[in-house]
Amino acid sequence: MKIFKTIIIFLSLVITFASSQWPFQKDKNWYIEGPKKDWSERDHLRYNRWKNKIEANRIADSHDDQLLRIQKAIINGNKITTEIWNYGSISSPGNRVTDIIWEGLGYGYEFGPFICAEVQVNSSKHNDSYPKVDSNGDTTWYARVISDGLSSLGGEVSPDGTEFYGWKPLAWNDDLSVPYADPISENIPTSNDLDRDGDGKPDSWPFGWYNENLKDYVWPGALRQGASNSDLETFFVVDDRNNKEFDYYPFLNDTTKKGLGIEIECRYYQWANPLAEDIIFLIYKVTNKSDKDLNEVIFGMWGDPHIGGPSNWQDDLSYFDKDLNMVYCWDEDNVSDVVGSVPGFFGYKFLESPGQPYDFIDNDNDGMIDESQDNGIDDDNDWDIEKHDVGIDGVPNTGDEGEDDGLPTPGDPFDIRKPGEPNIDWTDLDESDMVGLTGFASPPFTSQNRISNDQFIFENHLTPGVFDSANAVQAGDYIFIYSSGPINLPAKEARRFSIALVVGQDYDDLTLNAVTAQDIYEKNYQFAKPPEKPNVSAVPGDEKVTLYWDDVAESSYDPITETYDFEGYVLYRSTDPSFLDQQTITDANGSKFLFEPLKTIDGASARFDLVNDYFGLSEIEFSGRGIKYNMGDNTGLRHVFIDSNNVVNGQKYYYAVVSYDHGDVELKVPPAECSKTITVNPETNEIILDVNTIAIVPEAPAAGYVVSTILEPGVKQIQGRGTGEIVVDIIDHSAQEEENSYEISFSNTNQQLSYSVLDLKEVKDSLVARVGKYSKLKNKNVDTTSFSLVSSNGNTFTPGIDYNLLAEDGQILILETGLITEDQSVIASYQYFPVLNSIKLAAQEGNPIFDGMTITVNNNTLGLDNDMIGWNESSSTNWTWIVKPFNNIPDKKYPADYEIRWFSSIADSNYRSGFEYVKANFEVWETTRGMTPMRLPFIIIENINLDSLWNPGERIIILQDSSNASTSWELTFLEPSPDPIAPKGGDIFSIFSNRPFSDDKFNFTTSASKEDKNVERENMNNIYVVPNPYVVSSNIEPLDLQNPQDRGPRKVYFANLPSSCTIKIYTIAGDLVETLQHRGGIENGIKYWDLTTSDNFPVSFGVYIFHVESENGNEAVGRFALIK
Q1: Given this model, what pLDDT does residue 468 score?
Q2: d(CA 363, CA 356)
């Protein structure tokens, strides 16, 4: 009995182990053989869950901080959107929504690189091992080892199915001194990522990418720190330590690491420029980190396309064009997964091959033999001391290693943060003796051609000099395999290769894109660099949308043309987040090429450019396209735009404000636009916006809405004499706060007048301290007099001891010698200048927009305001006047206003010494705005009647103080003839001057938008339904973003609602159909209804009654019709 129980327990344990090892009632082979194209979505989810669990356990069990979790990213820096993984794969089996998407269709099952090398193994046990016998008769065993990260056909898996031999992502280099990724993030680092969690760095970047010289977290660019070559770049690093298939140990002192001992740095580039918008560049730098030289090394790329979508893989045709080094494929019947969408052509172009610097041959026929990117020598003599002596970080004026030393400084091959100076070693493509593309194969997608069949793949598909013609006649499901080699890869050396994934509408479009890809590569990936993207905000309104943006793009420097070449802004609007419906401008080949700008209400393009010599069509044609870029009409720049051109409430719109440059005629570089990227998360349909793109729904405000204002008396002068105009406009009524005050102050430094706006509300920022690093505040231009830094329990820190403040940059350096500790929570309190030292004094727009407001200043030059000078309205005198500076001397113009006040008797005397007896029946007062009125002395030049009285025609000279030298303005009154009418007591003659600002100060206070129940009551009768009637569908119904051909859910909306109310919908017979609760903000007066009943059934056609009751007790009744 005990034996029987023991057997039962044993069998239970075995079953439990087996079910945990091979879950979901699947056998071992199901997991080892891996994903199949006929698997269901559920199968893929089960498999991936099992695989991810194994990988997570492996990392946890290894206790190795160098290893990184699996991460992915969805990249869409241009018209191609795809999923990438940090183990090397582009797309993946089972991916049906981001499988190299172009114009709504998928093109790729999985793509990824591989490395093959011949190594000496310790035994003959492996089936792929083979012997070599030397001259002494001794036998040594070798194997062709293929190292990769692919998942297709099962990938590289251990015989027992418990371990994956594929590439492993790395978080750090070997000694944990150089970070590659953030171990906490779920995403691969991307160059355009944002700081959403407020820790000072973009979320997917590691903290180790902080640059002390630049005082910021910066992208580890291949050519320079802090800058990507492209509009969007992704970066990750893998190695092959876990490839345990062969009895080979690359590291002499570490038997836990196997594989070939290689590390692969991966960079993917995308440009939004119309010439390159259909290309992804894949750049791989392969380093032999092992202690052993590698021989017979072949670099390769494996890929499996599916033209037209993930269910359309059976009928692909393909052809290899040796002249272009490109295989391309197309769909046999031009039918895709999406009805009505014709698939394009998909290409896979080889660009850069690894170098062979040890064979004494000029492999690439460039006149240099065995040039190398590892030798520290400028092999081709193109390093220019005047341009390139910028130091190892590639950035001028940082004072780093090698800057201004007169010698070329190569980068550190083992530190991505030190790329090196331009045109030396790895920053110079020409310093590689490339062997070129040496083979191409296109076998069918079968288990026999699984990448893990190392020797079979090598013998059949990697033979140097063999190029398949592909399958241009027999349609099917084929793999593409590129290869370049063999080369030698000595220990600690690196080589690079690169591929371009290219898409086009047809063959001609594809080949033009392939030529562009080659051109970009030959320019060392230094393609046209557009200006920086502006930061855009938007405000929904009633049948309008207000857009406003900053001027960061206008100071952009183009490293290609070496000029500041910003030219203007152009606006795009679409109901499609990809803006593809606006790509209607075709090139000379008939391919869709450029995008149609948004039209203004009067039909003009929403394009705003500098007033300069660049306007109309550019002189430079897009290469091979027969089309030129429209640079604008010298309209002048704008930073605010109100779109009211057929804007429909309730419709979701996507906007992009795009900066562009004017190109370079001499270099034949056409104008370039910055990207306009909107990402649709395929898992959630979430819209991910870039800084210059907006998703917005225009809507009517709530029924009781009262807009924000600037409180009376408006902009008030509290200091100074300036009379210029200051206009503060509210463009975003949702951004003002109640009784928030601001101060406008003018100053004159080095004979340059400027002004600043100080927000008087105290800001409090909570920060997590990074000792020795700068932490960013929410605002720049901090007022140093108001700044304080305290701990969470209120202890105040000391500037210069605990921290340093960079006020203009809005950063705090936490000092290592102070009391603040790593990760300590601190609170910064301060006021800041949203506008600082602006010199826009001639009514120019373009100041930073702050709290939804703009400020424009129109300064005056000193002179008389002749439109304002004259007698008071009640005066009956007809005397005329002459006012001028004393003796017409320009320096005697004085910035003040005056009143000449008349009396019925003698009121004052001549101030001229010795002539005090001359009397006058008026007084002179200075009455300058903002100043206390002050009585002034004056001089009378008695030259009409010497009667000791002032008479008309005699000069009056105003003195500013008791000194006779303080003369300013003079005036003369003239009697008309005949019938002069003299002024009488109580009359006032006013003199006004236009005065420039100097030390002037103004203030103003805002009132926030609010809701008023009385206004609500007056507007209840304005509630209505859109559309009314509803007929079959409505243009406000959203598209299914994953399947744009499918209609979204049905809906109508109620407009002009109170912010909080109950809506009851009845049939015409009085039956309650549905009750809706609306709880929106005061700017939101819309509530959507999905045309279903309270029981979730679709409603019938007919006429319906609605009743609305607000929380304030206000009511309204209306009706609408449904015609389904």
Answers
A1: 82
A2: 8
Question: CA-to-CA distance for 896 and 885, rounded, in angstroms?
Answer: 12
Give residue 26's pLDDT. Answer: 67
Which of the two residues, 66 and 322, has the higher pLDDT score? Answer: 66
pLDDT tens, position by position, 530-548: 999 999 999 999 999 999 9
Can you tell me the distance from the alpha carbon of 1108 to that of 1094, in angstroms, rounded to the nearest whole number?
A: 17
Query: 245 near 276, Cβ under 8 Å?
Result: no
316 three-state secondary structure:
strand
In 3D space, the residue among 1072, 1079, 1078, 1076 whose CA is nearest the CA of residue 1105 turns out to be 1072
- pTM (2 d.p.): 0.81
**Does pLDDT of 413 surpass 90?**
no
pLDDT tens-place string over residues 243-280: 999 999 999 999 999 999 999 999 999 998 889 999 99
Q: Coil, helix or strand for 456?
A: helix
Q: What is the DSSP string of 590-657?
A: S-EEEPPPPB-TTS-B-EEE-SSS--SEEEEEPTTT--EEE---S----SEEEE-SS--TT--EEEEE
- Return contacts of 556-563, CB within 8 angstroms, 24+ apart: 556/530, 556/531, 556/532, 556/659, 556/661, 558/529, 558/531, 558/661, 559/227, 559/526, 559/529, 560/526, 560/527, 560/528, 560/529, 560/664, 560/667, 560/669, 561/663, 561/664, 561/667, 561/669, 563/664
252-289 b/e (C-beta count within 10 Å ≥ 16 → b)? eeeeebbbbbbbbbbbbbbbbbbbbbbbbbbbbbbbbb
Give residue 17's pLDDT: 41
> How does DSSP assign 29-72, residue by residue?
HHHHH---TT--HHHHHHHHHHHHHHHHHHHHHHT-TTB----E
DSSP symbol at 581: G
∠ Cα 1093 1097 1100 (to 5°): 75
C-alpha–C-alpha distance, residues 924 and 991, integer Å: 10
Which of 509, 507, 671 has its CA nearest to residue 590?
Answer: 509
CA 865 to chain centre: 48
* pLDDT tens for each residue of 798-820: 999 999 999 999 999 999 999 99
Task: In whole angstroms, give the CA distance from residue 45 to residue 35.
Answer: 10
Beta bridge partners of 688: 679
The predicted structure's pLDDT at residue 711? 96
Phi, psi of 386 (to 5 degrees): -75, -30
Residue in this structure with the two tokens 């800041």, named with its chain if needed: 832
331 within 8 A of 317, measured Cβ to Cβ: yes
Q: Which residue has the tokens 């601190």?
A: 826
Percent above pLDDT 90 for the chain: 65
Of 548, 547, 556, 659, nearest to 608 by C-alpha is 659
Q: Residue 784, SS3? A: helix
